[in-house]
């Protein structure tokens, strides 16, 4: 059986996990053919390690005729490349879901995928439970919220940081608003919130609260959904960002599996 061609956007820590999973036999239906990164020298090192091609731009990547392109790079890469990828004949796996907080862009990408008979797969990243979220939203109008705990230091280079935050001794709320507002302030920190919102009530109707917690490590999210028929709470803790990369591996497995979970 001919293998599906897989290309990667981003040559950092997360896509190294995806590439290693492929190398270790977790994705036997795929052939890793290409990688694109912001730094071509770094992409070259990545390509040498995994015996694929380092590309200088998206057009060279699409010239490799990938069946799937998996992104673990940035919101901007999704904004810049999504339509080119879909028009070029590939399916797209997305980690930087924050790009889809822009409803107009989201609809444009969805329409482009439909016109080309291809799919955009949203990886769960550090959260999960999309199945019950979507089911609840189909059954009746719902309210949705997501709460996040973060280490004060993780907010240091963000607009949410304020003087003295590193010295707090108890939990302190640093943000409350919609997920669309959150992604505008923290474009690289709350992709999981946008994914949750897209699977449930929508980015403009899903409330997000972020607390800084002294001594905390990792990421923790609490998702609450309530409708006429279904009420659920999901609590997810991840010590590192590895779970995001493995969620891409899971999506790629499901895309070709005879039984889908």
Could you characterize the architecture of this molecule?
The chain has helices at residues 13-23, 40-50, 58-62, 75-87, 103-115, 130-139, 179-185, 191-199, 242-256; strands at residues 4-9, 30-36, 53-55, 68-71, 91-94, 120-122, 142-150, 172-178, 206-212, 219-227, 231-238. The protein is α/β, with parallel strands linked by helices. The longest helix is centred in the C-terminal third of the chain and has 15 residues, at 242-256. It is built from nine helices and eleven strands. Helix 1 packs across helix 9 (242-256). The strands form two sheets. The protein has a six-stranded parallel sheet, with helices on both faces. Strands 8-9-7-10-11 form a five-stranded mixed sheet. The protein folds into two domains: 4-125 and 243-256, Rossmann fold (3-Layer(aba) Sandwich); 130-240, Dihydrodipicolinate Reductase, domain 2 (2-Layer Sandwich), CATH 3.30.360.10.
Sheet having the most strands:
6 strands, parallel
Instruction: Briefly note the structural class of the backbone.
Output: alpha/beta
- The strands making up the biggest β-sheet line up spatially as 3-2-1-4-5-6
Radius of gyration: 19 Å
The total of helices stands at 9
Order of helices and strands: EHEHEHEHEHEHEEHHEEEH
Enzyme class: oxidoreductase
Binding site for NAD(+): 126, 191
Domain Aspartate dehydrogenase: 168-248
InterPro entries: Asp/hSer_DH_NAD-bd, Asp_DH, Asp_DH_prok, L-Asp_DH, NAD(P)-bd_dom_sf
């Amino acid at each position: 059986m001919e293998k599906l061609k897989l290309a990667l956007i981003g040559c950092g820590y997360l896509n190294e996990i995806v590439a290693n999973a492929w190398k270790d036999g977790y994705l036997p239906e795929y052939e890793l053919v290409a990688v694109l990164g912001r730094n071509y020298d770094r992409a070259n090192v990545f390509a040498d390690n995994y015996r694929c091609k380092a590309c200088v731009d998206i057009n060279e990547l699409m010239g490799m005729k990938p069946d799937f392109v998996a992104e673990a790079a940035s919101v901007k890469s999704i904004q810049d490349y999504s339509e080119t990828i879909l028009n070029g004949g590939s399916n797209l796996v997305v980690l930087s879901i924050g790009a889809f907080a822009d409803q107009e862009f989201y609809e444009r990408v969805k329409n482009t995928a439909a016109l080309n008979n291809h799919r955009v797969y949203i990886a769960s990243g550090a959260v999960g439970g999309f199945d019950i979220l979507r089911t609840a939203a189909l059954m009746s109008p719902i309210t949705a919220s997501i709460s996040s705990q973060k280490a004060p230091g993780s907010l240091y280079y963000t607009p949410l940081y304020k003087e003295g935050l590193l010295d707090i001794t108890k939990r302190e709320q640093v943000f409350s608003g919609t997920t669309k507002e959150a992604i505008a302030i923290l474009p690289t920190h709350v992709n999981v919130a946008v994914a949750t919102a897209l699977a449930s009530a929508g980015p403009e109707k899903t409330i997000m609260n972020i607390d800084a917690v002294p001594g905390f490590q990792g990421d923790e999210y609490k998702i609450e959904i309530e409708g006429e028929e279904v009420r659920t709470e999901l609590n997810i803790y991840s010590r590192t960002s590895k779970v995001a990369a493995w969620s891409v591996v899971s999506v790629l497995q499901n895309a070709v599996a005879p039984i889908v979970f």
